[in-house]
Amino acid sequence: MNAFQMIGYPLLAVSLLEILLGIVLIRHNPRKSPVNRSAAAFSFFAAGYAFFSAIAYLRASQGLDFSFSSRLAWTGWLMIPATLQFIFYLKDENSRTARFAGMALYPFWLIVLLLCLFTDLVEPGDVSLVPFIGRSGPLEEPLRFFGAVLFLWSIVELYRLRTLSTGIKRTQLNYFLSGTMIFAGGGAIMAGLLPLFRGSGFDPALGAFFGLPWVALTWYGVTRHRLFEIRRVLPRTAPLVLLAGLAIGIHIVLFKLFEPALGAIPAILFSLSLLGALFIGTRSNRRMRGWMRSAVVQERHDYQKVLRESIYAIATILDLDELLEFIISRMKNDLDVDSIRLFLRAPDGRYVLRQG
What we know:
By secondary structure, the chain is mainly alpha-helical.
């Protein structure tokens, strides 16, 4: 495997994870929330950034022209309006500022992408990837600087948003916001600021690698903390994806082990037969799926479990103070909340702290 492939294949894997995340956010959005839609848009544009960068490196590994794929990587700059819309929609789902940001910045960066693809005003071509050597068009450096400023501004807004959120919402958003700040900071440096110094030797496309911590932290937040209210799809699909990956890994190992002695076709048939016996002919499939489900999804933030326990407590605990103490303690432990205060209305109309 050469240097081009060592860069291209990991970027391709990152793009597939981001595409899958975007599809999940779009398909499982029962309230039609603009927060989910803007996060999905960010995921798709991040996937385009990583995917076209990967294709450029993989084409270069085969000695093919990669200039058009490299220019398509400018799709990644459309993450800026998606990020800003996510921030403002999270504050207010009817935000006019979010709509204005979309109406102003989406057309702007789309025009930039078209100029990059069909003119030499942004990227004139004649680029070498390893080592990276490139020329800049008359508009490239101002556009990269402008994009870097917007990304840095979004980092500040994301940090403020993170500090303002509390309770379950902060737990749910913590990983996503942290990953987004890493991605935005890495993109601002790699794709925005370093290219202004032509002797840096860094390809702006390598900023797509910062999508890996972002998508990993986002998937972690989704699976462990029910981020974006995705509750049904992951308990079924995440273990299946991991199980499929495990089966593929075992198949590759068995094929490599038996191919020198048996040949390619017999080794494939033999390894598939062993996999069938392991995952279909025995109970290991159900056990492994159950183990993976508990490892990936766990029982954290299981709202139905909290509701069932609370209903049972209401029906069985007669003392009011004991009942309230039980419900609050279960909410605190199961929902990962730092503190809870329960105020009840007194006869004089004031609200008095009863439990906490």
